[in-house]
């Protein structure tokens, strides 16, 4: 563990804070909301690409270390949290989304960047895409190596994020993630690889690339997001409890019963294969449903998607399928759906549309 923040190649550049650099004419205004993660991490030496402390470097220092930002946009930073993203809670999501929503309403803000740990970055990005009503670009970014490491990836990822957030051509494309030169849509992207800088992947492919400050778009998202969303963070004050139960050979019903016992409103089953459910736990899920708990059938298999009434009779059991959403993203969509309805047909409609 590293107690203090050593001088870093990024931070040691010691340029004036990007926010205080003179504005270039016609520059767009981007706010960087910092939440922690490796992009704000620091290791003991340049060799420490994987052994380091996340969430150490404050946003002002991060921006000051990147004078290139002043060529891209007029940038100012805000420290919202300073945490590793595996420790994100529902409350963190609500606080962050409400701050983003407030900022995008300001006429002097053209785009917002969120710096974030990579472990749950895709969850936060998806939550923002479901709940913030705006056409302005929202970009979530992290890094796989701390700024102190050789070949650190955070500096370019952040410059790319600000560049996309400042772009007119990114308007209306929803929340995106800029890692490894790619522009990914929040809904589809996941952290699929650890250690490597090519960590963020989508089975449907990136929307485009950002190279030397210019965006190259190849496709656009078709699922509902931001302006088309029926969920709005401005009217959400808490999220219903939705929990994930992971499946495997010899799985017991213990976790399902425990979550029902602690008052879960929905259980997302991370099933094997096509979202299959072991015979031995089907009764536990049926009992949960009979007590009013929603059952959402997803898959632990990363690619493909779960079909309704394949593997299990969803119509008969009154269950919902998670489409192609990973269990952790299905948790978020189910929680938002439950703020509106308790009808599994409506919840299924929501899972098809978002
Ligand atoms: N690469 C990272 O950002 C991982 C660091 C940490 N586990 C986090 O998610 O915040």
TrEMBL record:
Q: Which residues form the L-asparaginase N-terminal domain?
A: 29-220
The lineage's top-level taxon is: Bacteria
- What EC identifiers does the entry list? 3.5.1.1
Q: Cite the binding residues for substrate.
A: 85, 118-119
Q: Which residues form the signal peptide?
A: none
Keyword Hydrolase listed? The answer is yes
Domain named Asparaginase/glutaminase C-terminal: residues: 242-351
- Keyword Amino-acid biosynthesis on entry: no
A Pfam family recorded for this sequence: Asparaginase
SMART domains named among the record's database cross-references: Asparaginase
InterPro entries found in the cross-reference section: AsnASE_II, Asp/glu_Ase-like_sf, Asparaginase/glutaminase-like, Asparaginase/glutaminase_AS1, Asparaginase/glutaminase_AS2, Asparaginase_C, L-asparaginase_C, L-asparaginase_N
| Keywords in alphabetical order | Hydrolase
PANTHER family named among the record's database cross-references:
60 KDA LYSOPHOSPHOLIPASE (PTHR11707:SF28), L-ASPARAGINASE (PTHR11707)
What is the protein's name according to its record?
Type II asparaginase
The lineage, from the top, is:
Bacteria, Pseudomonadati, Pseudomonadota, Betaproteobacteria, Burkholderiales
């Amino acid at each position: 563990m590293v107690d203090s923040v050593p001088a870093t190649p990024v931070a040691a550049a010691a340029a004036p804070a990007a926010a205080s650099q003179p504005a270039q004419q016609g520059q767009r205004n981007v706010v960087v909301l910092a939440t922690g993660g490796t992009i704000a991490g620091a290791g003991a030496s340049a060799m420490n690409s994987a052994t380091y402390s996340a969430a150490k470097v404050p946003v002002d220092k991060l921006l000051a270390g990147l004078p290139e930002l002043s060529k891209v946009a007029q940038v100012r930073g805000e420290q919202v949290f300073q945490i590793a993203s595996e420790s994100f809670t529902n409350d963190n999501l609500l606080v962050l989304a409400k701050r983003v929503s407030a900022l995008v309403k300001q006429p002097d803000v053209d785009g917002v960047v969120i710096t974030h740990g990579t472990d749950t970055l895709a969850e936060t990005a998806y939550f923002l895409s479901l709940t913030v009503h705006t056409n302005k670009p929202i970009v979530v970014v992290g890094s796989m190596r701390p700024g102190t490491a050789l070949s650190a990836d955070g500096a370019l990822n952040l410059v790319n994020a600000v560049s996309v957030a400042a772009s007119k051509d990114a308007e209306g494309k929803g929340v995106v993630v800029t890692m490894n030169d790619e522009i990914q849509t929040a809904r589809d992207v996941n952290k699929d690889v650890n250690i490597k800088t090519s960590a963020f992947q989508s089975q449907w492919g990136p929307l485009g690339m950002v190279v030397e400050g210019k965006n190259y778009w190849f496709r656009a998202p078709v699922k509902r997001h931001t302006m088309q969303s029926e969920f709005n963070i401005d009217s959400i004050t808490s999220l219903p409890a939705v929990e994930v139960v992971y499946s495997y050979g010899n799985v017991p019903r213990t976790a399902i019963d425990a979550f029902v016992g602690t008052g879960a409103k929905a259980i997302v089953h991370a099933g094997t294969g096509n979202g299959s459910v072991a015979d031995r736990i089907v009764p536990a899920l049926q009992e949960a449903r009979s007590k009013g708990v929603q059952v959402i059938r997803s898959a632990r298999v990363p690619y493909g998607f779960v079909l309704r009434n394949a593997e299990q009779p969803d119509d008969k059991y009154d269950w919902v399928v998670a489409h192609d959403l990973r269990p952790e993203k299905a948790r978020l969509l189910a929680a938002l759906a439950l703020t509106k309805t308790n009808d599994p047909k409506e919840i299924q409609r929501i899972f098809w549309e978002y």
